[in-house]
Amino acid sequence: VLVEFVVEKDGSISNIRPLVSANFPELDAEAIRVVRLFPKFIPGMQMGKPMRVYFNLPIKFTLTKK
What we know:
Helix content is 18%, strand content 39%. With 66 residues, the protein is an alpha+beta fold. The strands form two sheets. The chain has a three-stranded antiparallel sheet, with helices on one face. The two termini are 22 Å apart.
């Protein structure tokens, strides 16, 4: 699952959404849940000022049979 989100000026994460889905809604939901648990990021900087930054993060799942 490729997840896109925004790192805000204060380092918080917002606008989380899957860009590329694994065609399993459960995996998309799990990827979003995990990104919500991330601690605050260091915000992007431009000319010494914090800026909002889009970030793409690939998340790989390994599925096993029970």
